[in-house]
Amino acid sequence: MSQLLAGKNILVMGVANDRSIAWAIAQSLSAQGARLAFTYESERVEERVSKLAATIPNSIVLPCNVTVDSEIDTLTEKLKEHFGVLHGYVHSIAFARTEELEGLFVDTSRDGFALAHDISAYSLTAVAKRIYPLMTEGGSIMTMTYLGAERAMKNYNVMGVAKAALEASIRYLANDLGQFNVRVNGISAGPIRTLAAKGIKDFNSILRQVEEKAPLRRTTETAEVGDTAMFLMSDLSRGITGEVIHVDNGYHIIGV
Ligand code: NAD
Questions:
Q1: Ligand 1 binding site (Cβ under 6 Å of any ligand atom)
Q2: Cα(53)–Cα(226) distance, rounded to whole angstroms?
Q3: CA–CA separation, 134 and 77 (whole Å)
Q4: What pLDDT is stored for residue 201 in this prediction?
Q5: Which residues participate in catalysis according to the annotation?
Q6: What is the whole-number distance in angstroms between the Cα of residue 20 and the centre of ligand 1?
Q7: What is the CATH number of domain 9-249?
Q8: What per-residue confidence (pLDDT) applies to 3?
C-alpha cells in the first residue's frame, strides 16, 4: 500500500522528550511519508527536541512559545518559506501549575486559571488562525484532550476546565474552517506516564484503576494515540470534523 501521508507537510507542536505523545504521533506520521516541522517551547528543551528530530528524515525544528504572539507569527513565516503549503497541524500542548493540580478546584487562583487556559486551550486557536491560510490544499488540525473535560476527576481541576474549553474550541474552529476544507478534531487519550502527567498527584492510582476497569483491561500506549492521529491527518478521515475520538481502551464508557 502506498504511504498515506506522502507529500503532506505537517506541523507538530509539543515534543518535549521521547515519552511525549507528540513524539509518538510524529513517528506514526513520518512512517506514512509526512514531512514534519517540530517546535520547541524554550532553549531548555531545544537540544533534546533537535536530537529527536534528527532521527526523522527531512524534518525541521523551529522555536515557538505559544504564549507569545510574535513567536507564532515568526513560526508561520518560516513554515511558509520552508513548505509553502501546509497540510496538517498537531497541537499537543498543555500546562497548569502543579499546585492547581491537587486539592480542591474551588481553590483555583485567577492567574492559575488564566495561565492554564492560555497555554492549554487558547494556543490551539492562536496558532490555527495564523496557519490555516497556508492550508491551500485543505488541511487537518488536531489536538489532545482528556476525560477530565467531561467529568470532574480528582486532581485534574483547572486542567479539566481548560480541556472543556479546548473541546468547545474544536467545534467552533471546525465550523469556521470547514468552508476552507480544513478539518479540526481531537483525541481524548487515556492516562499515559509523560512529563505533563508527572504534575498530576496520585497518577499511579489512576493508571491502576484504568488497568482494572477499562473494557480492554490495559492502559493507553502512546503509539495507539499516534496511529489515530495519523488517521486524522490522512484523507481516510476526510468526512470527520469537530469530533473528539477517545483512545483510552474504552475507559470513558464505564459507569462508576
Ligand atoms: P509532555 O509534557 O510531553 O507534552 C506537553 C508539551 O507542552 C511539552 O512539549 C511542552 O514543551 C509543551 N508546552 C507547555 N507549555 C508550552 C508553551 N508555553 N509553549 C509551547 N509549548 C508548551 O506531555 P504529554 O502527556 O505528551 O502532553 C501532550 C498533550 O496530551 C497535552 O495536551 C496533555 O494534556 C494531553 N494529554 C495527556 C495525557 C496523559 O496522560 N499524558 C492524557 C490525555 C491528554
A1: 14-16, 20-22, 41, 45, 65-67, 92-95, 119, 144-146, 189, 191-192, 194-197
A2: 16
A3: 10
A4: 83
A5: 146, 156
A6: 7
A7: 3.40.50.720
A8: 96
Measure 137 CA to ligand 1 centroid, in angstroms: 28
CB 130 within 8 A of CB 63: no
What one-letter code names the amino acid at 66?
V
∠ CA 192-194-195, nearest 5°, is 150
Span between the terminal Cα atoms of the chain, in Å: 43
**Residue of the nearest CA to atom 33 in ligand 1?**
94
- Please give the C-alpha separations between residue 38 and each of 24, 45, 237, in angstroms, as whole numbers: 13, 12, 23
Q: Which three cell numbers, joined as nine digits, stand for 236? A: 481516510
Q: Which three cell numbers stand for residue 110?
A: 485567577
Q: Which three cell numbers stand for residue 7?
A: 507529500
pLDDT of residue 1: 61
Q: How far is the CA of 255 from the centre of ligand 1 (A)?
A: 28
Could you report the average pLDDT of every consecutive run of 10 residues in the chain (256 residues)? 93 98 98 98 96 97 98 98 98 96 96 98 99 98 98 96 99 99 99 91 92 97 98 98 98 92
- Exposure class string for 221-233: b at 16+ Cβ within 10 A, else e: ebebbbbbbbbbb
194 among annotated binding-site residues:
yes
CB atoms within 10 A of CB 33: 15
**Cα→Cα distances 205→87, 100, 254, Å:** 39, 19, 17
C-alpha distances (whole Å) from 151 to each of 120, 126, 161, 163, 164 are 17, 26, 10, 11, 10
